[in-house]
C-alpha cells in the first residue's frame, strides 16, 4: 500500500460527511444521550415540581406525560391538548413532551399564548400570572391539540464567563429558580461549570501539586472564569477549602436537577492550563508561559499563565484524569465537554499541521476519559482573533477530530455570524448563538430582527450543519424581551412577525393591553432593539465607563479619528427637530445607534401608561430601565459639551455642563434606588452571605466590589486596562463610585481652567486610583430594599430634562 493511500485512509474519519451521513452522526449522538436521561416518571415529577413552584394554585389543572420521539415525528416536541372534559378531578390541560424540558416548555407556551402570562428573571421584573384564569376556567386549545417540534435538537445556554459575572454568589435557592427558568425556556444543553476547582484539586494533588501550589493558581470567586481559561492566576484568591467544598456540593445539586428535567449538562475538560509548580515536578514536560493579558506594566504576578502543550504525553494523562474524576463524582451524566484552549491565546505557530495535532491531542485526552466524548468549543476565537484563524487554520482545528465529535458555538451569530464565511464551519456541526451582552452591563440593546431571522436563515441554508440555537451572554438579568424571543426560536421553524409579537409581548408582560405601551414598544423595536451597525454593545456610556484622558493637550491615542454623529436638538418654528451632523473628531465615542429623540417619545408614552400599570413590577422595572437609558445618553452629550467648553476655555459653559453631568449621576442614582433590581447592596450582600468566617467575608466583598469597578490590578498612576468592563447601573455604585470619579476629574479640569495651567492627568489618576482602592476594600453597607416612588421620580426627571 502506498504512503499516500495510507494517509488518505487515516484521514477519512476526520473529513466532513455528506448531508445524510451528517444527520446519521448527530442522530447517533442524540440516541446515546437519550440513554442517560432520567426515567419518565422522574422527569414527569420534576416537571410537576416546576409547575408547583410557578403556579401552585393550578397544580391539579395539568397532566404531564413523557412520550417517545415517534409520537412527535421523530423529533423532540411538546403537545398541548384538552384533558377529558368530563373529568371530575380538576384536570383541564394535558401536556406531553419528549423530556421534562419539553413539558415545561409546553406549559410556558400554553400560559403565554392562551392565558397571557409572562415569565422573566426576578431581577427583570419577575413573572406576570395575574392574567391566568382560575382553576376550572382555563382556556381550551383546538380539538386536535397543538404540536410544536424543535426544528433543531439543542437549545444551549451560558457563556463560560456567565458563571463569574452573574452566578458567582448564588446559593441553591437561586439556582433552583434559574433551572426552572431554563426548563420553561426550553434549554436542554446548559453549561455546568460550578465546582470544577474541587475536582482539579483532587486531580492535581495526584500529580504531586500541593494545596499551597494551588493558592496561586485558582483565581478568586469573582475571577474564576478567567483563571480557568488561563488568562490570569491568583487574582482575588486564594480559594478556601470551604469554598471548594461548598461549590462541589452545589454542583451536584445543579446536575441532579438538570438530569431530572432531561437536560444534557456540558461539563468542563482540560485545556492545558496548569500551575507553575507542575513545571518543576515534570521538568521535561513541554510547558510554556503565555504572554501578557491586560496588564498595565507586564507584571507577571497575576498574568502569563503556564500552558502544557497538547502534544506532550502528560497532557493526555491529566486530561483523562480530570474527566474520570468528574465521572467518579457525578456519575456518567453526559458525553459533551467544553474546551477552549485558544480563547484569547493564539497557538505558538499558524502551521495547520501543528494545529491539527493539537486538536487531535485535546480530543484524545477527552476520549480516554470518556470514550463517547464530544468536544463543544466556543467559536469566539474565530471572531476575536480572525487575523490568525484563516481558513487553513480553522480547517486544521475543526477537522482534527472525527466528524460528529466536535460541535462549535457560533458565539456571536446575532451580529457576526461565522457560519456564513466559513462554509458552515467547513462541515462541522454548530449551534447558532446570540452573545448580546458583555460584562453583565445594564444597557437596553438588541437586534430583534437578527434573532428572529438568523437561526431560520442558517438552518435552511444550503448544506447547513446547524444543530441548535443558544444564548451565550456574558451576563444575564437584562433585556427580558431579547431573551424571550431568542428562547422561542428553539421551537420556531419560521421567522417571527415582530410587530405583532411585540404587541402580545406587551400584553403578557404587563397583564393588560395598553395602547401607550404598545406604541412605545413599536418605537423601541425600530430604535434600541434595531442595532445594525455591527458593533459589539459593551456599554460605553461615560457615566459608567469614564474616559481616562487629557482632553486638551493629550487626546487619547485609542480614540479613532473616525466619522461620528453629534446629535443636536434645535428649536425651529416652535418644534423640536433632530439634526445629525457628521464630524471628524478625536472626542471619546459612546455607542449610539438610534435616534434619542424617538426614544424620549417612547419614554413619554410609557409614563402616560403609568396610572394603569404602576402596580405592575414588570412595568416599573421597564420604566426605570428606559428612563435610565434616556438619561445616560443625555449625559454622554453633556459630558462632550463640558469637554468642548474646556477646550475652548469657556469657564462659564464648562461649569454649567460639568455640574449638569454630576447632577445627572445623582438623579439616576435616585431613580435606580426606587427599584429592588438596581441596587449595589444586593450584589454585595449575596457575596458576604456565602462566607463562613470574617476572612472570607472580607475577601468575597473585595471580589464583588473589584469586579464591577477596576476589575484587574492597578499601579499608582495607571488604572486597570479592564476598568469598567463590568460596569453596572446600580444605585450606590453611581453615588459612591462613579460620582466621586467624575467630580474629581471635573475639579482638576476646573483648576486647569481657572489657573490657566495644564490639566494634571497623572495627579487625577493618582487621587482617583487611591480612592478606588479604598472603596474596593471598604465595608460600608448599601441598601437592599428600594425606596421612593418609581413613577413619580421618572415623571419628575422627564419634566426636568425633556419638557
Automatic annotation (TrEMBL):
<keyword id="KW-0325">Glycoprotein</keyword>
<dbReference type="GO" id="GO:0004561">
    <property type="term" value="F:alpha-N-acetylglucosaminidase activity"/>
</dbReference>
<dbReference type="Pfam" id="PF05089">
    <property type="entry name" value="NAGLU"/>
</dbReference>
<comment type="similarity">
    <text>Belongs to the glycosyl hydrolase 89 family.</text>
</comment>
<feature type="signal peptide">
    <location>
        <begin position="1"/>
        <end position="20"/>
    </location>
</feature>
<keyword id="KW-0732">Signal</keyword>
<dbReference type="GO" id="GO:0048731">
    <property type="term" value="P:system development"/>
</dbReference>
<dbReference type="InterPro" id="IPR029018">
    <property type="entry name" value="Hex-like_dom2"/>
</dbReference>
<dbReference type="Pfam" id="PF12972">
    <property type="entry name" value="NAGLU_C"/>
</dbReference>
<dbReference type="Pfam" id="PF12971">
    <property type="entry name" value="NAGLU_N"/>
</dbReference>
<keyword id="KW-0378">Hydrolase</keyword>
<dbReference type="InterPro" id="IPR007781">
    <property type="entry name" value="NAGLU"/>
</dbReference>
<protein>
    <recommendedName>
        <fullName>Alpha-N-acetylglucosaminidase</fullName>
        <ecNumber>3.2.1.50</ecNumber>
    </recommendedName>
</protein>
<keyword id="KW-0326">Glycosidase</keyword>
<feature type="domain" description="Alpha-N-acetylglucosaminidase C-terminal">
    <location>
        <begin position="501"/>
        <end position="800"/>
    </location>
</feature>
<dbReference type="InterPro" id="IPR024733">
    <property type="entry name" value="NAGLU_tim-barrel"/>
</dbReference>
<dbReference type="InterPro" id="IPR017853">
    <property type="entry name" value="GH"/>
</dbReference>
<feature type="domain" description="Alpha-N-acetylglucosaminidase tim-barrel">
    <location>
        <begin position="156"/>
        <end position="492"/>
    </location>
</feature>
<dbReference type="InterPro" id="IPR024732">
    <property type="entry name" value="NAGLU_C"/>
</dbReference>
<feature type="domain" description="Alpha-N-acetylglucosaminidase N-terminal">
    <location>
        <begin position="46"/>
        <end position="139"/>
    </location>
</feature>
<dbReference type="InterPro" id="IPR024240">
    <property type="entry name" value="NAGLU_N"/>
</dbReference>
